[in-house]
Write a structure and sequence with these properties.
Layout lengths: L1 H21 L6 H19 L8 H21 L5 H26 L5 H28 L13 H20 L5 H19 L7 H23 L2 H24 L4 H6 L22 H9 L3 E6 L1 H6 L2 H13 L3 E6 L9 H8 L7 E3 H4 L8 E5 L8 H4 L18 E6 L19 E5 L2 H14 L1
Parallel strand pairs: 1-2, 1-4, 2-3, 4-5, 5-6
Helix pairs in contact: 1-2, 1-9, 4-5, 4-7, 4-8, 5-7, 5-8, 6-7, 8-9, 11-17, 13-17
Length: 455
């Protein structure tokens, strides 16, 4: 039986890797999720055949109840709410790993110091990932403000909490693991996750979600060593490695270090020192925007978080169709950190059946803006701000941006005159070739579509 269980775990490891590989492309991502799902089901079934397994009825009930809740939630969740769902599922994974660590420590089942170290680390990281993900969920769900929450001495308090947590971990490691100490250790770890995530703003959430995903994978792998479960070790390692790589790539796309994202409180309003921008905002009606686009040869659409909030992706697809029918070349430019989770814009556009072949990332599309007749920016802000290229005093200086300002004409659909997440004015909005079309993105795009049909 043991050979059969280990063989199944080896097979699931292969399926996890195949699934992960297929998820790397939108055209095969759906099948990749199925492969990974099958692997998870096989690993779960195999685990039930472990000798001396207890509490089988309770485990089956928990799996059925959890599976039912997850199934209903996944069916009902709107695509625009996917970041919240990813955040809370990350948290559940970290919480499960932390709970395994707590049970193992309380029961004293860890046989040697090496495994004890991994159990403590898994419990610490899993608890931080759980509570941090819950704060990320609350910010994304607008249960609390998405601006950084900061106060004087905050980082010193965080360091203090971490040091006390590590001290408790050392006491547990040295054999003083009383239930009260273990409880205090996990309480401090949960608190550290909360206090570390509070200063992070909503605009940094794509990176934070990716980071907590990596931490959850790492915690699961560590607890897999504690349980001597090969499937948990392999799956956790794969998730941890992939999440770490994605986190690093997204931080690079923002030209910021992971430390700056976690501790920089980026996104606070810039009260002083902002460079004055010359020029005026130039409003335009939707009908006039339609005329401008109707006689263009090439249009690039730049989606941002505002498109997600307005749920305008289906109208944007309708706009693309009508422009293509008129013989206009249409492309989409997607910045790596647009939205509130990795690939947020890609998911929304795929939901509205925008062909993947029309989606281009920053490196692929930037050279084309100079030959574009009209760039249509929908709810994007900091990722198209030329200050990142021109103003060394700007907090976003050095961040790779979409070179929308180099287009012949720029249309910006925006609810109002507010600043972007970075809390700074957008120089693009004041350039001579930019016109502002104010209003809800879905309504404005619908008006443009209706106007185009009349031309």
């Amino acid at each position: 039986m043991e050979l059969l269980i280990q063989t199944t775990y080896f097979l699931t490891a292969i399926l996890f890797i195949v699934g992960m590989k297929r998820m790397s492309s939108p055209t095969t991502a759906r099948s990749g999720i199925r492969w990974a799902g099958v692997a998870m089901a096989l690993a779960t079934i195999a685990t039930f055949f472990t000798p001396n397994m207890h509490n089988l009825p309770l485990m089956i009930f928990a799996i059925l109840a959890g599976g039912l809740v997850a199934w209903i939630a996944a069916k009902k969740v709107a695509m625009t709410d996917m970041p919240q769902m990813i955040a809370i599922y990350n948290g559940m994974g970290g919480g499960a790993a932390g709970a395994i660590g707590a049970v193992e420590l309380l029961q004293g089942n860890v046989p040697d110091k090496g495994l004890l170290t991994l159990t403590i680390l898994g419990g610490l990281i899993g608890s931080v990932a759980f509570s941090g993900s819950m704060i990320a969920f609350a910010k994304l769900q607008q249960l609390m403000g998405d601006r950084p929450f900061t106060f004087r001495g905050q980082q010193w308090i965080n360091i203090g909490i971490l040091l006390v947590t590590v001290f408790c971990a050392m006491l547990i490691f040295s054999g003083h693991g009383s239930p009260a100490l273990i409880f205090a250790f996990f309480l401090l770890a949960l608190t550290f996750g909360v206090t570390t995530t509070l200063p992070i703003g909503g605009g940094d959430m794509p990176v934070v979600i990716s980071l907590y995903n990596a931490l959850t994978g790492l915690a699961v792998a560590f607890e897999g060593f504690a349980l001597q479960n090969a499937s948990m070790i392999i799956a956790g390692t794969v998730v941890g490695a992939a999440g770490t790589l994605l986190t690093k790539m997204m931080a690079n796309a923002m030209n910021r270090s992971i430390g700056n994202i976690l501790f920089g409180a980026f996104g606070q309003e810039q009260a002083t020192g902002e460079q004055e921008i010359k020029g005026n905002l130039k409003p335009m009606e939707a009908d006039d925007a339609a005329v401008l686009m109707a006689y263009a040869e090439k249009v690039i659409i730049v989606p941002g978080y505002g498109m997600a909030v307005a749920q305008a992706q289906h109208k944007v697809k309708e706009l693309m169709d009508i422009l293509v029918e008129r013989g206009i070349q249409v492309k989409f430019a997607v910045h790596p950190v647009a939205g509130r989770m990795p690939g947020h814009m890609n998911v929304l556009l795929a939901e509205s059946n925008v062909p993947y072949e029309r989606l281009f990332d920053l490196e692929e599309i930037n050279a084309e803006f100079a030959t574009t007749d009209v760039s249509l920016v929908i709810g994007a802000n900091d990722v198209v701000n030329p200050a990142a290229r021109n103003n060394k005093a700007s907090p976003i200086y050095g961040m790779p941006i979409l070179n929308v300002d180099q287009s012949k004409n720029v249309l910006v659909i925006k609810r109002g005159k507010g600043k972007g997440f970075a809390g700074i004015e957008n120089e693009l909005f004041y350039t001579d070739n930019t016109r502002m079309v104010y209003g809800d993105a879905q309504n404005i795009v619908a008006k443009i579509v209706q106007a185009l049909k009349k031309l």
